[in-house]
Amino acid sequence: MGVATDASSPATAGPAFEGGGIEIRKIEIADVIECIEKGVRDFSRAPLYGIFFGAIYAVGGLLIVWLTFTFGYFYLAYPFIMGFALFAPFGAAGTYEISRRLEAGEPLSWPIVIGAVWGRVGKELGWLALVSLFTFIIWLDLAVFLFLVFYGVHVPSLPELVTQVFTTAYGLWFLLVGNGIGAIIALVVFSFTAVSPPLIVDRDVDFVTALTTSVKTVLANPRPMLAWAVVIGADLAISFVTLFVALLVIFPVLGHTTWHLYRRLIA
Which residues contact 76 (CB under 8 A, 6 or more apart)? Predict the structure, then answer.
């Protein structure tokens, strides 16, 4: 069991950071596992709401893939999909509200769940999403640059590209460098979105405070937060393999888990 056994009780270890009425707790990997279990439990208590938000995100992913192939940019489909994952913490805002209401014993309804988040904190979440959008644009620019470095202006056909990437040393280097840069960018985005969206949903804070608190939280809990990032990456990979169908369940479970991790980390 981690050092913080309940969201409403103080951590047994000293706070990693205090300021502006916000205290960051220390947790362990066991706490991450327990929060995942709570996320699954929240989804089972309100599955239709979770599937609704998961379906929206899944349709968005399918739309991106369709557009890239329709306009002949199939070689950017993978970077687009991976970049799209940067917006998952904001797409899951509805699941934070669901978990908050389940935790408080408050009733659930479609107007409440859909309207509560944006009605109270849409502006601050919007600013956070803008930061992710800026990062997304940088990632796409880097993806195009890497493709030009490795393949020039000549775009091979899809079968040729797949064959080169997975059967040649040159293609494997392209895959390794691209995923390496993408992982670095993803970790940066993860650091400022790990707890900032649920913090904004739960408290009256501005997006700068939420962002800096999230970064400090990740730095104060590197091992458990890295483990959580790996879980997110693995789940999203499963979703992509299943053509986003798995997102109907995985997306809301990740959202509910994020809420419980926030409650475990922030006092």
Answer: 68, 140, 143, 144, 147
How much is the pLDDT for 18?
A: 53
Look at phi and psi of residue 244 and say left if phi exceeds 0, alpha if psi is from -120 to 50, else beta: left
Contacts of 90 (CB under 8 A, 6+ apart): 125, 128, 129, 132, 193, 197
The answer to whether residues 92 and 258 touch, using CB atoms and an 8 Å cutoff, is: yes
* 44 belongs to a structural domain: yes
* Token code pair at residue 230: 């790996």
Between CA 129 and CA 88 the distance in angstroms is 10
134: left (phi over 0), alpha (psi -120 to 50) or beta: alpha
Q: In this predicted structure, what is the pLDDT of residue 117?
A: 64
Q: What is the pLDDT of residue 196?
A: 92
Residue with tokens 């929240």: 42
Residue 18 falls inside a structural domain:
no
**pLDDT for residue 259:** 96
Of 112, 71, 74, which Cα lies nearest the Cα of 94?
A: 112
Write out residues in the chain with pLDDT < 50, as ranges: 1-14
Task: Return the exposure string of 200-227: e unless at least 16 CB atoms fall within 10 Å of the residue's CB, then b.
Answer: bbbeebebebbbbbbbbbbebbeebbee
Task: Give residue 262's pLDDT.
Answer: 97
Residue 19 is predicted with a pLDDT of: 53
Domain-located, residue 261: yes
Residue 220, domain extent: 25-265
Q: What confidence score (pLDDT) does residue 265 get?
A: 97
Domain count for the chain, please give it: 1
Residue 11 lies in a domain: no
pLDDT recorded at residue 12: 42
Confidence (pLDDT) at 166 = 86
